[in-house]
Write a structure and sequence with these properties.
Keywords: ATP-binding, Biotin, DNA-binding, Ligase, Nucleotide-binding, Repressor, Transcription, Transcription regulation. The protein is of the alpha+beta class. The protein contains 9 helices and 14 strands. The protein has 3 domains: 2-60, Winged helix-like DNA-binding domain superfamily/Winged helix DNA-binding domain (Arc Repressor Mutant, subunit A); 67-274, BirA Bifunctional Protein, domain 2 (2-Layer Sandwich); 281-323, Roll (SH3 type barrels), CATH 2.30.30. It is elongated and about 80 Å long. Bound molecules: ligand BTX.
């Protein structure tokens, strides 16, 4: 907390010195304490100039997703009020599950610079290289029946499509149920995992992976042609903390609306606006088999309606879909 307050004071005066005394007064701590925090910030990569009788001046900030960076300027009131950052982790979803099992509050965010075992659905891998993406998990505790859990993925997808469109100036689209694409390329995936008691949700962990500054050449060969990054779309790198803030700020009001209305119905139009699935010819791989046809609509429960090749309407509750 203290570090984010110091950073905030330095950032409010770009190019200028902030005196040690002003910091002591504002934060209610000693000069030695301020100096210690400045040292810590310098150790994590901030270039801060210290000049006797003038104070401190921020010269440059590294692209970090530490709690201090994310909190600085964050306007949410629920999401990200508690943030756990790790330089390296197996999967942020694992730590989030563990914290949720031990009572972590709703809105707790787990984020890492790098995942060694980032995962997608059905045991697939999610490539999560160091310092170039946002790999994070949010703990949610909606009081909803178990059957509603998949809708959280859809709500998250709306927020992500909005956030990534705002950040890049290019249109991001939702591929049902859990991918965000630019054109035909995937930039972001969502993995929602849950813990339930009887038929009520106990907690949900919403894992979000966003390729922010990943260089195209760095993607593994097998996903070179299907993956993209915000950097490639925008033609410029983006500060990762800003990406996190934008996502949390888009998601929080949608999540509140979802929980208050007890369902996906009122968000269906928002979803439709941001989707690139409806109207397309698709192949859907479901647990019951493969369905080929045209994606017609999404219903008020988030179920995908498909007209198959014999003209029959099918409901798809869960699947991997491909555009043909
Ligand atoms: P998915 O199963 O829909 O997609 C996984 C597939 O996407 C992979 O099989 C591969 O083809 C492709 N892929 C892998 N890595 C990338 C990448 N970086 N960019 C684009 N395509 C890729 C999607 O699952 C859900 C991903 C959620 C990831 C987050 S990160 C934070 C949290 N922790 C964790 O372990 N997972 C989630």
């Amino acid at each position: 907390m203290m570090q984010s307050s110091i950073l905030q004071m330095l950032r409010e005066r770009p190019g200028d010195f902030v005196s040690g005394e002003a910091m002591c007064n504002a934060l209610g701590v000693s000069r030695t304490a301020i100096w210690k925090h400045i040292k810590d910030l310098q150790d994590t990569g901030y270039q801060i100039e210290a000049v006797r009788n003038k104070g401190y001046r921020l010269l440059s900030a590294p692209d970090l997703v530490t709690a201090a960076e994310i909190r600085d300027g964050l306007t949410t009131t629920l999401f990200g009020q508690s943030i756990v950052f790790r330089p390296t982790i197996d999967s942020t979803n694992n730590l989030a599950q563990e914290l949720a099992n031990n009572g972590a509050l709703e809105g707790t965010l787990v984020i890492a610079d790098e995942q060694e075992q980032g995962r997608g659905r059905r045991g697939r891998n999610w490539y999560s290289p160091p310092r170039s993406g946002v790999w994070m998990s949010l703990i949610l505790r909606p009081q909803l029946p178990l059957a509603h859990a998949p809708q959280i993925t859809l709500v998250t997808a709306i927020a992500l499509a909005k956030a990534l469109t705002r950040l890049t100036g290019e249109r991001a689209g939702i591929k049902w149920p859990n991918d965000i694409l630019f054109g035909k390329k995937k930039c972001c995936g969502i993995l929602t995992e849950m813990s339930a008691e009887f038929d009520q949700i106990h907690h949900l962990v919403v894992g979000i992976g966003i390729n922010v500054n990943v260089a195209q050449a760095d993607f593994p060969k097998e996903i070179q042609d299907i993956a993209t990054s915000l950097r490639a779309v925008k033609g410029a790198t983006l500060p990762r903390a800003k990406v996190v803030q934008t996502v949390l700020e888009e998601l929080e009001p949608l999540y509140r609306q979802y929980v208050e209305n007890g369902g996906f119905g009122t968000l269906r139009e928002d979803w439709k606006q941001m989707n690139i699935t409806l109207g397309k010819e698709i192949v859907a791989h479901t647990a019951q088999g493969t369905i080929r046809g045209r994606a017609l609509d999404i219903d008020e429960f988030g179920v995908l309606l498909v007209e198959d090749q014999s003209g029959e309407q099918k409901k798809i509750y869960s699947a991997d879909i491909m555009f043909t």
